[in-house]
Amino acid sequence: IHFYKRSKVDSRMSPIAGYRTVLCVGLVGLLHAAYSAAEWRGVARVMEGEPILPLDIVLQTFMFLVITMIGVTHIAGEFKEIRATVELEQQTWDNLRNRPSFYTWGHRGRVFSTEYEPPKSGKNILDIPSRFMS
Asked: DSSP H helical segments within the chain, as ranges?
């Protein structure tokens, strides 16, 4: 039997755990606002006139939406910039247009070269092989 030492857990909450709590509170609040709006819609069907969603439900929805967004953005971590100039600042003008994935070596430009010699093959591509001739 092995006895493992239990590490002492720090009583302070980590920042991520705190923001997860904020996220959960925000999501529960949004679910409550959605349920309240659905209940109001059921009641408003019976009423005559123009049913307008009450201000407290609208405010609750926006408040918990902001709280949820705060929780999500802090859990996600550091954001990277989307600007293309961040990557392009490190490149020189010489290799800016260099894209190795577009390299092609089997192109017809070699035919225009003065040193080009076509391959000396005795076979014609259009000939039928002798094993198929019977």
From this structure: 15-46, 55-76, 85-88
User: How many angstroms separate the CA atoms of 124 and 116, rounded?
Assistant: 20
SS3 103: coil
Q: Which amino acid is at 4?
A: Y
Give the confidence band of 24 by pLDDT, cuts at 50, 70, 90: very high
| This model's pTM is above 0.70 | no
What gap in Å lies between CA 34 and CA 128, rounded to an integer?
A: 74
| Per-residue buried b or exposed e for 39-64, using 16+ beta carbons within 10 Å of the residue's own CB | ebeeebeeeeeeeeeeeebeebbeeb
Cβ count within 10 A of residue 112: 7
